[in-house]
Amino acid sequence: MFPDRTLSGPHLARLLGEWRSSGPVYLALARALRLLVLDGRLPLRTRLPGERELAEALGVSRTTATAAYAALRDEGFLASRRGAGSWTRLPADAAVPEHPRGGGEDVIDLSCAACAAPEGALGGAIEAATAELPRHLPGPGYDAAGLPVLREAIAAHLTARGVPTSAEQVLVTAGAQHAWTLLLRVLAGPGDRILTEHPTYPAALDAVRAIGARAVPVPMLADGWDLDMLAATLRQAAPRLAYLIPDHQNPTGLTMPAAGREQLVALARATRTPLVIDETIAGLDLGPFSAVPPVAALDPDGDVVITTGSMSKAFWAGLRVGWVRASPALVQRLATARMALDIASPVLEQLVAVELLRDAPAIVERQRRGARERRDVLAAAVRSTFPAWRFALPGGGLSLWIELDVPRSTAFAAIADRHGVRLAAGPRFGVDGAFERHVRIPYALPAPVLEEAVARLAVAWRAVTESGPVTPEPTAALVA
Ligand SMILES: Cc1ncc(COP(=O)(O)O)c(C=O)c1O
To answer: Which residues of 311-349 are buried (b: 16+ CB within 10 A; e: fewer)?
Structure first.
């Protein structure tokens, strides 16, 4: 297995950000590199710079670089061959997922912003779906665009949200990430530019990279979208697609106002740029809002607005059911492309989704109430424990996007891990190592667990801030 790409010393230094923490320097470096591999920012089979180059780029001794690489090699995160250098890998015997979870009974996983299944609702839906299944057994079970009954149910769900939708405008997918991947496959290709918010949902950026396209990030302002910057980027960078999350943006939790939506759609029309609007989190508005119409309501025929959505946040991510809302012609193209990937979604899960959507208003309202309570508990705990951190209470979604008082997010995530909390460091949500001053903390877990997590984070943060000098973050990195 040979490396796919080579990283320079300065590039790796940028990815590492503020990596130093307490204890031996080589261990801190090995820990930070391991975290980069585990959270996907350092792809597998990437050749790392030689030890001398790394030492120079980081301002450490060559012995430190050598010892860090040796530690990673011992743990199975680095493979080396004389003459070919060292490249990233995962330990062969450990099934380490890209976004590590668990790792011990006592680990609190704050790397994932998704809730447990709504109590009581799923059992009934599964029973009803199982009773319905025999009606589908005489057929082949392959329906690339989705079961007609689910396409109808999703169309009715979207219509109730304010976007008149017919079943042929709906493609059922295995979640919103699958929907985005399919759209990229059909509408974009290697070398294309894809406009994204900055910060944004990390897996969306991963999908862009996976097709060899390039994200063109547009920075979010503290209170919303920079529509002037968006307009300039649409005009000057001529992106193939724009991907936005106007309904409770992940990770900031911001919601785009109605006027912004109108401007956005007008811009997309003027520049002929398809907008992919990710509504995965749309159900979790925590208000108070005056109702903001979905972006697709401004373009119901789907000329420029394509919507993706999912059962994952307001119902349960384990179902793996999502959708695309687009013009019937694009739905057909996507269904055809999908046949080369996974052919169709599982019938039983689709039937479960139909049942859940029947009770959507009651289930979603309960999920919202729970999220609101947990948000307030987490916000209070963070405010009292970390008075120097800053964040705005989000109007929707499942996480706080917190500005730390010092730019040490990567070191914080590494050290928090040792204190039993798994965190997604700020740079995971950006391009080129930005957001070292931010961290996302979800409120998807029960309130007492969140309070325990904050107590552990307090100990970890003390270790971070006591571990040596802090280099000021270059402001340019924030808006790169
Ligand atoms: C904005 C956004 N889009 C998509 C997804 C993935 O959704 P799904 O589970 O439906 O693939 C997530 C999950 O966190 C998300 O936050």
So the answer is: bbbbbbbebbbbbbbbbeebbebbbebbeeeeebbebeb
Ranges of H-type helices in 211-346? 227-237, 258-271, 328-338
Could you read off the pLDDT of 139-189 as tens digits, one per residue? 999 999 999 999 999 999 999 999 999 999 999 999 999 999 999 999 999
Radius of gyration of the chain (CA): 23
pTM exceeds 0.70, yes or no = yes
Pocket lining: 196 vs ligand 1, CB cutoff 6 Å? no
Scan for tokens 């503290």, then name that residue. Answer: 222
Name, in order, each residue with C-beta under 8 angstroms of 354's C-beta and a sequence gap of 6 or more. 129, 132, 147, 149, 150, 153
The H-or-E segment that residue 31 falls in is helix 25-38
**Cβ of residue 317 lying under 6 Å from some atom of ligand 1:** yes
Pairing assessment for the beta strands 78-81 and 85-88 based on DSSP bridges:
antiparallel
**CB-ligand 1 contact for 353 (6 Å cutoff):** no
* Paired tokens of 475: 């402001």
User: Among 117, 261, 239, 223, which residue's Cα sits nearest to residue 188?
Assistant: 239
DSSP category for residue 303: S
CA distance 56 to 13: 10
